[in-house]
Structures are given as structure tokens and as C-alpha cells.
Write a structure and sequence with these properties.
By secondary structure, this protein is mainly α. About 75% of the residues lie in helices and about 0% in strands. The chain contains twelve helices and no strands. Helix 4 runs antiparallel to helix 5 and helix 11 runs antiparallel to helix 12. The radius of gyration is 19 Å and the shape is globular. The N and C termini lie far apart (about 40 Å).
């Protein structure tokens, strides 16, 4: 498996550069709220969902209810339902590793698994596994480094919680530039804007996510009927 590990390491370098920096932002922000490196480690190992980990900091500090936290987690990560459906056939061949592959399917990992070509003489399953595993390791390392920095230094954390939002903006811009189909993106923008105007900035997120999921479902169903 050495060849698969080496090739996966090379393929995951772009994610490494982003995940270590974002993980550090998460660790610093978590430490600034009074949660030490143990929380950073446990959350990055067992939750491992960048956006919801940033949201979880706010949920922890504001005393959110279990139902509120569960709804936010479900809606924010609902896009993974789409990812999962498109990866079902590939993951069926992973046997014992299947559960981990599903768990570790983040936005960036999904992009790599879909876009990367398995190098010659490499076992595809092990190659994909190590990409997923290395990506999570990068996030864990970044969050621990950030937690350590936050415990040693007094840092102004203003704006750190925007790090994940900035990453999503970059991903959306890249998709707009490289994809020929933009109707899904426009749908998300329009529904979010309408919900923002109706519900206000403090309450628009959940209605917007519900609207986007329903809209995407209808559009996907319509496209399948015309195939």
C-alpha cells in the first residue's frame, strides 16, 4: 500500500494547505471560548465537518437546545445527501472501509474523489481511502495546532469564524467559472435572498436550507424525467 499512500499524499496536498489553516482557525476560536485541545481533538475526530464545527462553537457557547443543534446540523450538512447518492456505487466495493468513507466525505474530499484519476498500478479503493484519511488528519493537525497557539498567545479572534464561509465562497466562484450549468447555484442564491428578506438575518438560515433542498429535489426529479 506504499504506492497508494504516496500517490494519495500527493493528490491531497491542495486540501492539506487549506485544511491546516482552517483547522487552526477552528482550534484558536474554540480555545478562545474556553474549550481546550481535548475538545478540538474529539470534535475533529468524531464530528469532522468543518462548517458545523464552527457552528458548534456558537451552539456550545449560547446553550442551544439539542433539537436546535440537531436541526442545524441536519440542514447545514444536507448537501451530503447528494454527495452520498453519487458515490453509492463506488463505496459499495469498500466492504469494511465503507462506513469510514461515508463519514469522511467532506466537500473537498468529494471533489478530489470525483475529479482525481487513480494512478497506474494503484488499487483504487486504497487510493481513495488514503485520500480521505489524510484529509481528516490534516484537519485534526490544524485544529490541534490552533488550539495550542490559542492557549499560548492572546489573539484577537474577530473574523476567524468567517474562515469557513470564505472557503465556501471560493468553492462557489470556482464552480461558476468551471461549470457550464449554473441553475443550481442561482436557485440557492434566489431562495437565500428571499428568505433573508422575509425572515431577517437571524432566522433565515433554516427556512433557506429547507427551500433549497426542496428546490433541488424538484429540479433533479425534472431532469431525470427528461433523460
Amino acid at each position: 500500500m506504499k504506492k497508494e499512500m504516496l500517490e494519495a499524499l500527493k493528490a491531497s496536498i491542495p486540501v492539506m494547505m487549506g485544511y491546516i489553516v482552517l483547522g487552526m482557525a477552528f482550534g484558536i476560536l474554540l480555545e478562545s471560548k474556553g474549550y481546550n485541545w481535548i475538545y478540538a481533538l474529539l470534535m475533529s475526530v468524531f464530528i469532522y465537518a468543518g462548517s458545523i464545527q464552527f457552528v458548534a462553537i456558537q451552539l456550545l457557547t449560547t446553550g442551544a437546545t439539542f433539537i436546535h443543534a440537531a436541526m442545524m446540523t441536519l440542514l447545514i450538512n444536507a448537501r451530503h445527501l447528494v454527495y452520498g447518492l453519487s458515490m453509492l456505487k463506488k463505496f459499495n466495493n469498500f466492504k469494511k472501509l465503507k462506513s469510514y468513507m461515508i463519514f469522511s466525505l467532506t466537500d473537498e474530499t468529494y471533489s478530489l474523489l470525483v475529479g482525481v484519476k487513480t494512478p497506474k498500478d494503484c488499487n483504487e479503493n486504497w487510493f481513495y481511502f488514503f485520500i480521505s484519511f489524510f484529509n481528516q488528519c490534516y484537519w485534526i493537525i490544524g485544529s490541534l495546532i490552533g488550539s495550542l497557539i490559542g492557549s499560548l498567545l492572546t489573539i484577537n479572534t474577530t473574523g476567524l469564524d468567517f474562515a469557513m464561509t470564505a472557503l465556501f465562497i471560493v468553492i462557489v466562484l470556482e464552480q461558476l467559472l468551471t461549470s457550464s450549468k449554473h441553475h443550481y447555484t442561482y436557485l440557492g442564491f434566489i431562495i437565500s435572498l428571499v428568505c433573508l428578506m422575509i425572515f431577517g438575518k437571524d432566522a433565515f438560515l433554516i427556512p433557506a436550507m429547507i427551500g433549497i433542498i426542496m428546490g433541488l429535489s424538484f429540479m433533479y426529479k425534472g431532469e431525470q424525467e427528461h433523460v
